[in-house]
Design goal:
This protein is of the alpha+beta class and 263 residues long. The protein has a single domain, classed as Aminopeptidase (3-Layer(aba) Sandwich). 28% of the residues lie in helices and 14% in strands. The chain has a seven-stranded mixed beta sheet with strand order 1-2-3-4-5-7-6. A hairpin with a 6-residue loop joins strand 1 and strand 2. The radius of gyration is 19 Å and the shape is globular.
Length: 263
């Protein structure tokens, strides 16, 4: 039987075959590092650590891999969907180091979700995360496996018979990182270029780095991470939205919007 070419098609398979195919985009190193059997998705105690939430008839799926059955944060979380024209879209992809310090940027002290800081913010947690070297949206450090993750995901997409896939970066730094790994702008490149210009000499965003918050210190513009925190802090005066990207399988990075060394 041939492999389905869509998330809806994968979701229509029996659970065992469905899960086996979705597991193909998980980097092997994660199974090895956390002693998870890639065949059974269980640890040495026989506890299953892999979950797929994709019902038959649905064109969306959530894939989760944990290092322990009841871990608050997964090692890997992916939310995928089919687009209206039959392409694959990554809506969210997160990799966490479960042994690193956690910063509650995703919730208020009373447990209310912050929705990635878009609708509400836990400022003390964000400041601590900023000082610890995290980027907006992170609750823990990552595992430094992005390159392997993209390579595995490309093989998964190729198995579906597709030649490209799409992603919607949630933050400024996400778009820059994607660009670094060979993604192309479907929409938003000119806006990204204008933001870059505005953070440079005589730019209005540069002038707004006035030290009024920890995220707006002079010098913040010199790193992509610093810029992303300033944008998250509202320095643009508008949300970071409308950037859509895609990656052609096998395509490597070309000329970058940030080719002169800002990183």
């Amino acid at each position: 039987m041939s492999t389905p070419s869509s998330i809806a098609g994968l979701n229509a398979l029996g659970p065992a075959e469905r899960d086996r195919l979705y597991a193909e985009f998980i980097p092997r190193v994660l199974f090895e590092r956390f002693a998870i059997d890639p065949g059974t998705f269980c640890n040495s105690s026989g506890q299953r650590l892999f979950e797929v939430r994709g019902k038959p008839g649905s064109s969306m799926v959530e894939v989760t891999l944990r290092h322990e059955p009841h871990a608050v944060d997964p090692i890997l979380y992916a939310h995928l969907t089919d687009t209206v024209n039959g392409q694959l879209l990554i809506m969210l992809y997160i990799i966490n180091d479960p042994h690193s310090e956690r910063f509650d940027t995703d919730r208020l002290p009373d447990g209310t979700p912050t929705e990635f800081g878009i609708f509400r913010r836990n400022l003390p947690a964000e400041e601590a995360a900023f000082r610890a070297g995290l980027t907006p949206g992170q609750v823990r450090h990552g595992l430094r496996v992005l390159r392997q993750s993209i390579e595995c995901f490309e093989r998964f997409v190729a198995r579906l018979g597709l030649t490209m896939f799409f992603a919607e970066p949630l933050a400024y730094h996400n778009a820059v990182v994607f660009e670094h790994y060979g993604f192309t702008y479907q929409q938003g490149r000119r806006w990204m270029e204008s933001i870059d210009t505005r953070f440079r000499k005589d730019g209005d965003l540069l002038r707004r780095l006035d030290g009024s918050t920890v995220f707006r210190q002079p010098g913040t513009e010199l790193s992509i991470r610093g810029r992303s925190w300033a944008i998250h802090d509202g320095v643009l005066g508008e949300p970071f939205t409308g950037v859509h990207m895609y990656k052609v399988l096998g395509k490597h990075a070309g000329i970058s919007t940030f080719a002169d060394g800002v990183w």
